[in-house]
Amino acid sequence: MYVEFVGFWFKLIMVEKIGRKITEKELIEYFNKFTQQLLIWGSDGVVKQWSELRRLTINASDASNFNNMFEFEKLLYEIRKDIGHKNKGLNKGDLLGLFINDLDKYIE
């Protein structure tokens, strides 16, 4: 479930670079499927962080997009924790920095 989730996000990021957009229908279908799986298999922390991220992004303005990136990173940390990683020594931006090149200008 988590591998598919991360793969979907990387696909979202890459589609802008390769020129194929994901439709709103595809987004809705995938997130509906993920949420159903998460309800059964996700840890409490992942469920809580996913719920928080969804609420933030639904009501997001353009000004809050970068803050939402860091909320997404919190979700990634919770996913890693759920599968047994300690995240020891990892800090804000370490996961996002794996795929966002200019992240340093957004870290407080």
Give your account of this protein's structure.
With 108 residues, the chain is mainly α. The chain has one domain (2-106). It contains four helices and no strands. It has helices at residues 2-18, 24-41, 44-58, 65-82. Helix 3 runs antiparallel to helix 4. The protein is globular, with a radius of gyration of 14 Å.
Q: Can you give me a brief rundown of this structure?
A:
This protein is mainly α and 108 residues long. It has helices at residues 2-18, 24-41, 44-58, 65-82. The protein has one domain (2-106).
Note the main attributes of this structure.
108 residues, mainly alpha
Strand and helix map with partners:
Elements: H1 2-18, H2 24-41, H3 44-58, H4 65-82
- The overall pLDDT average reads 88
Low-confidence stretches: none
Structural class: mainly alpha
Helix content: 55-70%
Query: What is the total domain count?
Result: 1
Q: How many strands, what sense, and barrel or not for the largest sheet?
A: none
Distance between the termini: 32 Å
Radius of gyration: 14 Å
Number of strands: 0
